[in-house]
Structure to design on (405 residues):
């Protein structure tokens, strides 16, 4: 055999077996797992990419800013509202909204309103309001005073204060969105009522999210008897119509409970009834993903079920979880509003958007006091903001979406 033939790859002498035996065993876990620093950098890069894609969705971005401001406002609702939401202005019942002006007789004097002159119309049995254009009343900002009724409040029930973002002039009034049938300022009631409705949504979504991820993940990953039990519980809950079930559970709460306990009870009820949809989605996804190579490899390397589900399976459909989580917020708020609207949820003196919407069912209100619909507009804007944010987050978390079109 020639030298050229002997040097060909087919004619090379194979390596002895002990060459391979002498090598250190292959550490699959060390070769595939990232170090803590690498994992942290990878996650930060992933979230940065999501943020860059989310910023391109301008409607979702502005909706997100709006929701952040709304949720931040519930921390200082008493400060933002010019009056206490329970205070009654008995001399200004059904007062229309006051217009904020800047110029008076051609000169700039800053934000001000004209006070109302009130007269009782005996022919139509209603109050007539006319503006006194000769007496402009300047608004005050970041003010602390006791010179008008309804200025004192208990901040989060901890201490008394009378500091407000906006105050009317001394001895004047400021009804930017008008008053209701009891003379209560609608603007103050919307600001402070949003705290209750948004808190119900936040706590309810947290409960349903934890239950949906936990039970759905267990059913999809383990299967067998665990899956059968979870599915039967879901079917029992979903077999009841939502509204009669809410009514039954709300009516089951004792009438002697305090408003705070009723509020917590409604929040827990809404959270316990909303988790089956997310649990079914998580279960169906995990049933398909648990047989993938990366899941099997993690299992062979000794990873616990909790780590496999949390680190490998759930991130595979993060976009769906994010959208479901965001869309659940307006659903929770709407559920509380519906219960309060039909009289089975929160009631006075506790204020919420649902309690305020009870006042728009009268024909007299529809014809004569249209400013009663302002809470409806606020609620619609809130729901649409959640929808737009959910749409933007879905596109940002989905690697196959294209925002450049």
């Amino acid at each position: 055999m020639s030298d050229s033939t002997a040097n060909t790859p087919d004619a090379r002498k194979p390596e002895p077996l002990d060459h391979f035996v002498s090598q250190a065993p292959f550490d699959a876990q060390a070769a595939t797992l990232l170090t803590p620093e690498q994992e942290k950098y990878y996650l930060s890069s992933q979230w940065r990419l999501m943020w860059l894609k989310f910023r391109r969705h301008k409607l979702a971005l502005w909706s997100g800013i709006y929701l952040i401001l709304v949720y931040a406002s519930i921390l200082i609702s008493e400060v933002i509202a010019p009056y206490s939401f329970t205070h009654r202005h008995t001399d200004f019942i059904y007062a229309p909204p006051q217009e904020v002006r800047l110029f008076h007789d051609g000169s700039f004097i800053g934000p001000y309103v004209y006070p109302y002159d009130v007269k009782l119309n005996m022919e139509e049995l209603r109050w007539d309001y006319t503006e006194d254009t000769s007496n402009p009343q300047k608004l005050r900002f970041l003010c602390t005073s006791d010179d008008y009724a309804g200025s004192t409040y208990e901040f989060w029930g901890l201490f008394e204060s009378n500091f407000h973002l906006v105050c009317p002039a001394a001895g004047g009034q400021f009804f930017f969105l008008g008053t209701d049938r009891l003379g209560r300022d609608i603007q103050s009631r919307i600001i402070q009522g949003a705290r209750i409705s948004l808190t119900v949504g936040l706590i309810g979504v947290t409960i349903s999210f934890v239950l949906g991820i936990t039970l759905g993940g267990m059913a999809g990953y383990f299967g067998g008897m665990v899956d059968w039990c979870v599915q039967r519980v879901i079917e029992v809950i979903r077999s009841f119509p939502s509204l009669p079930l809410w009514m039954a559970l709300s009516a089951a709460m004792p009438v002697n409970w305090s408003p705070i306990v009723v509020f917590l009870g409604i929040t827990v009820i809404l959270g316990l009834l909303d988790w089956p949809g997310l649990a079914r989605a998580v279960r169906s996804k995990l049933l398909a993903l648990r047989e993938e190579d990366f899941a099997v490899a993690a299992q062979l390397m000794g990873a616990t079920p909790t780590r496999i589900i949390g680190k490998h399976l759930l991130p595979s459909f993060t976009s769906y979880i994010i959208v479901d989580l965001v869309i659940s917020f307006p659903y929770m708020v709407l559920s509380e509003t519906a219960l309060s609207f039909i009289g089975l949820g929160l009631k006075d003196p506790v204020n919420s958007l649902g309690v305020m919407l009870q006042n728009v069912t009268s024909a007299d209100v529809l014809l004569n006091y249209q400013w009663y619909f302002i809470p409806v507009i606020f609620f619609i804007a809130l729901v649409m903001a959640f929808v737009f944010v959910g749409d933007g987050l879905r596109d940002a978390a989905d690697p196959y979406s294209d925002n450049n079109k």
